[in-house]
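Reviewer comment 2.1 asked that we show a complete input and output for one of the modelled complexes. We chose the uridine-diphosphate-N-acetylglucosamine case, as it is the one discussed in the main text.
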Amino acid sequence: MEKYVINGGNKLYGSVKIQSAKNSVLPILAAAVLTDGQVKILNVPHISDVSNMVKILIRLGCKAEYIGEDILIDSSSANCFEIPSGLAHELRSSIFLLGSLISRFKMAKIAFPGGCDIGLRPVDLHLNGLKRLGVEITEKNGYILCKCEKLVGTEIMLDCPSVGATENIMLAAVKAEGTTIIKNAAREPEIEDLQKFLNAIGAKVKGAGSGTIVIDGVNTLGSAEFLPINDRIEAGTFLIAAAMCGGEVELECTSAENISSLLHKLRENGCNIHIKNDKIILESSKTLTSVKSIETQPYPGFPTDLQAQFTALLCICKGQSIVTENLFETRFKYVPELRKMGADITVINRSAFVRGVDKFKGATVVAHDLRGGAALVLAGLAAEGRSEVLDISHINRGYGSFEYKLRAIGGDITRVAV
Ligand code: UD1
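Response of the prediction step:
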């Protein structure tokens, strides 16, 4: 067990290099199981979600290892189609392997996945999509069992634009017979990135980034070296940190386009934002003002993965705001913790009513999930006095070198063993 100890109040100045996107790297790692070729993924963050995915690949018989900031995978020796509960429970993205395993072995057995406890998180859309491709699915003793003679392309209409279901169906369809069309597909940039990677190893996928994705099945896939897009959620977290603490921070290697919904809101808060090629520079304002309301939406709307961090910022803005979480049922678990730090927030159903206070006060708080945990760290950095954020294993899932990067721009934050 580890915790962060934070002495708040420092302004943040300097430059932060953004890592490859966790949510791109994870499905790409799953996609590597589809090919016997060698795959090298570049600039990968050292985070526990990725190291757990690597462990799963090794368990499946693949060779997979970090070499510095890159990961090298050779799946030619993959010989297992089962992911036991111990590993599947470590991360939700283990579910992506269903598409890859059924494609490769025509069999897959996987325990129901774990991940952040932020709501019900069903997998019905994943399973319905695979069924449409010809997969027979049974559920027994906490396991999903899949088998098929062959996968045959078809049209699949998603009831809602689920990121994971879109990616899983793409992975299963890449080597299916004929053409698969996914309608009402999720449009997140990470899906476009998965398409780029799949095409780099020889697949024929088009349309990602729009609501309709068309996949023409191919027989074989090859090798590739691939640099995923940068992590828009990590980038957003550092921008919000700078807005909350004051100062001026420059993000290197970031697509402003991918977080334009956040940038609009930060400008409404009073921050100055400049964009120069792949750099975003945020200069905070002495008088941050609230935004009236904000709702999480699928891309290109405001991302649910920045909801907690942005709510923390609203807590110290002048005025009142309403934050509505439309994607996940229990994504306000960090609210009682922020209240310990002086926040004035009331949650009613899916909305948080925030009344701005002057400052956070240092306190001991508990991280209950990844993004909620990040929000508590930001509150601690902006607070008056000393804070402790406990149970930071959740934060380790998504932010590589978090405290190093924050310290490099002036944050007083230390990781301490408990
Ligand atoms: C992915 C991201 C996660 C992000 C989320 C929404 C990864 C590894 N994780 O998660 O960081 O918060 O997108 O942007 O990329 N749903 C169903 N049935 C299903 C699947 C989803 O009802 O079979 C619902 C969910 O309950 C939720 C909504 O669809 O309300 C969106 O979930 P989804 O897009 O699938 O999120 P994830 O892929 O789990």
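The domain at 2-19+230-417 is CATH 3.65.10.10 (UDP-n-acetylglucosamine1-carboxyvinyl-transferase; Chain). We note this here for comparison with the apo prediction described in Section 3.2.
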